[in-house]
Amino acid sequence: MSDQDQRTELPLASVHRAAGGKLAAPDGFETVLGYGDLAAEYEAATSTVGLFDAGSVAVVSAVGKDVADYLNRRLSQRVVELSPGAGVRAFQLDAVGKMQADLEYFQVAEASALLVSPPTQNGAELAQLCDKYVFTEDAKFSDESDQWAAFALVGPRAAEAAREAGFSPPELDARHAVSGDSHVVRSRYFLDGLLIVVARESAREVWEKLLKASSTAGGRPVGWTAFNQARVQRGMPWWGIDVRSENIPLEADLMDGIHTNKGCYPGQETIAKTMNLGHPAKRLVGLVFDGDDVIETPAPLQLKERQVGTLTSCVFLPKLGKVCGLAIVRFLYAEDGMEVFTESGREGIVRTDLPF
What are 251-272's pLDDT values in tens digits? Predict the structure, then answer.
């Protein structure tokens, strides 16, 4: 369970229930687990296009002429001089390099940006974190999570479905586009697919358009269970699940959120020292388990009665026909083929080559 507060019910909860969707809060955020055909949902998310209600994502607006300059001094990524349409992943780190937030920064206009974070991040806390060291700067951060609905299109035909529904995906060299009153972004959190952020009052209308477009492209709506299978298969860690406030980004090889030539941000010394030493103390790996039962997470991992890491995500992967997971283990044990065990004695084989 995430340490974030559970969110309010999804805007389209009644629509999902009417379609056979089962709602729950598996990691502290409201989501649709699935619609009754997991195999078909997984196939859509990995082979055609899956439509996922991501309505619990954190959405923070950043407005003011000093926003980019201020955040450039606070974040692990370079955000100054980005042109509208550009976007980057970035982290808020503490003084010793541990993660406080994982976010995507999208430049909307010259003095306006949009910050998006996974559902496991609380929008109000993210806005407060960004605002914490604003003194004389013209920079204002507002949690707008409850004003928007968000739908993710994942899979190889995501862009096709978006266009069919009337949305214009970003150009290939960009990550953000405004399509009418909506934001369309390429999001790492959603398997490099498209996240469409729309005014909450338009949620049902937009969902129906996307649903029809996804069907035309050979896809279907998918729940968290199928999406999570696809996420683990890609070896993509999520904030609040696989990486938390005790981790530094390098432990999960999250180099896409770090600008290696940018100086003067909290935690930079730890990041630079770790990179210069060659490796962090822990590392994200994949695990392939014997047996058919999915393991409840987080779960300690051990070897010869010594704890060596934590299993953070665990799913059944139809592609392999195996139970697989993501884990943070001590670097010494992050070796391909290494055997580790759960407390109950379940054997897992380390995979360092991800995706699965």
Answer: 999 999 999 998 889 999 999 9
Tokens of 24: 């729950």
**Topology of the domain covering 1-277:** Gyrase A; domain 2 (3.30.1360)
H helix or E strand, kind and range, residue 303: strand 299-303
- The b/e string for 224-260 (b: 16+ C-beta within 10 A; e otherwise) is bbbbbbbbbbebbbbbbbbbbeebbbbbbebeebbbe
Average pLDDT, the chain: 95
For 143, the enclosing helix (H) or strand (E) is strand 140-143
The β-bridge relationship of strands 31-34 and 22-24 is antiparallel
Rounded CA separation 1/302 (Å): 21
At residue 64, φ and ψ (nearest 5 deg) are: 135, 150
Structure tokens at 255: 């180099």
CB 129 within 8 A of CB 139: no
Superfamily for domain range 281-356: Aminomethyltransferase beta-barrel domains (2.40.30.110)
Are 139 and 53 within 8 A, CB to CB?
A: no
What is the pTM (predicted TM-score) of this model? 0.95
CB neighbours of residue 95 within 10 Å: 10
Instruction: Report the DSSP beta bridge partners of residue 109.
Output: 112
What tokens appear for 175 in the block? 């990550």
Scored b (16 or more CB within 10 A) or e, 114-134 reads: bbbbbbbbbbebbbebbeeeb
CA gyration radius for the chain?
20
